[in-house]
Design brief:
Helix content is 40%, strand content 20%. By secondary structure, it is of the alpha+beta class. It folds into 2 domains: 168 residues, 2-Layer Sandwich (Muramoyl-pentapeptide Carboxypeptidase, domain 2); 110 residues, no CATH class. Strand 4 and strand 5 form a beta hairpin.
């Protein structure tokens, strides 16, 4: 009898071990499933700009929806961003403000196609200046939405027309954070974001509290995430008798957008070098640098900045204060400012 009881106890103990083993196996499976779920979703706080590439496998894990806007264009948007946009849109309509989606997701492949077309038609240098490098456009995320306005029943889609409606955009911007959106490209922050002020370009981050914090602080996404830690920038337009301040501001924006490529550098100041640089000799020199420019107007700016403490991406000297770094810009009568050359040295 004792042997039988001992045998039964041993059997029960063995079964209990199997049970523990099954429980552990299930836990491991659940853990793996959870980890898989994490890796198969996107990070709504991911930053994509001129120096930060789209994360690996993003397009594979992205879930999108497609819609047709009022001008019959098809637009693809990340699903949660689109749901939030519809709530924002409905809220705006309560105040008789009407918007629609001009564009949202653009694949890396499509961006490469655009780059190739511009390169073939205008040359590699022009394409690099005007088209975001494939893999480095925020529109790849599906979380960046470009809005357009519908005013008095008419679609307002051209940038130069939309920018005039400052009051409408101000009301739109007041509501963005309530639905997890931020205004992406702030006025004066071109050296950080790499783009000029765009009141229509909003970004979904799927976190209302963080969106409100970013908005209330008036900082860029880069500053909030700590990818840019520089301080305030001083801009001095001088007292030109040739150019209006708005004209010089457009030139500075071009410089600041280019500076955004300089990863790790901290911009300190930019100033107009003065009308004395606007000479026939310098005009001839810049047209010689770029014979296709056919420039009629020129301007020189001087910039102070600090190079990165750890520098393996540029030819700049590590951890150095640069003073009076030159930027030469030019334009024809009908076009905008174009950066022709920069650096140190005499023409």
């Amino acid at each position: 009898m004792k042997k039988i009881i001992a045998l039964l106890l041993a059997l029960i103990f063995a079964m209990s071990l199997v049970g523990c083993g099954d429980t552990n196996t299930k836990s491991d499976t659940e853990t793996k499933a959870t980890e898989a779920a994490k890796t198969s979703s996107i990070d709504y706080m991911a930053i994509v700009n001129k120096t930060h590439k789209l994360p690996d496998n993003w397009e594979k894990n992205l879930k999108t929806v497609k819609m047709t806007n009022s001008i019959k264009d098809k637009v693809e948007v990340e699903k949660k961003a689109y749901d939030a946009y519809l709530k924002l849109k409905a809220d705006l309509e309560k105040e008789d403000i009407y918007v629609d989606l001009d564009s949202a997701r653009r694949s890396v492949k499509e961006q490469q196609r655009i780059m190739d077309e511009f390169t073939e038609e205008y040359g590699a240098d022009y394409a690099a200046k005007t088209v975001a490098k494939p893999g480095y456009s925020e529109h790849h995320t599906g979380l960046a939405l470009d809005l357009y306005l519908i005013v008095d029943g008419k679609d307002v889609v051209e940038n130069e027309d939309m920018i005039k409606y400052t009051d409408i955009w101000a009301k739109i911007h007041e509501k963005l954070a309530d639905y997890g959106f931020i205004l992406r490209y702030l006025d004066g922050a071109e050296h950080i974001t790499g783009y000029g002020y765009e009141p229509w370009h909003i970004r979904y981050i799927d976190d209302i509290d963080k969106a409100k914090e970013i908005t209330s602080k008036g900082v860029t996404f880069e500053e909030y995430l700590g990818t840019y830690t520089g301080g305030d920038v001083t801009v001095d337009y001088g007292k030109s008798k040739i150019y209006k301040e708005d004209d010089l501001k457009d030139a500075v924006i071009q410089i600041k957008c280019q500076f955004a490529f300089w990863d790790g550098c901290e911009l300190k100041s930019i100033r107009y070098a003065g009308d004395e640089a606007v000479t026939d000799k310098n005009l001839k020199w810049l047209n010689k640098i770029n014979p296709d420019g056919k420039y009629k107007e020129i301007a020189e700016f001087l910039m102070d900045f600090h190079s990165p403490k750890e520098n393996n991406k540029t030819t700049l000297t590590t951890d150095k204060e640069y003073k009076d770094y030159q930027w030469w810009l030019a334009k024809d009568k009908d076009g905008g400012w174009e950066i022709v050359t920069s650096g140190y040295g005499e023409q």
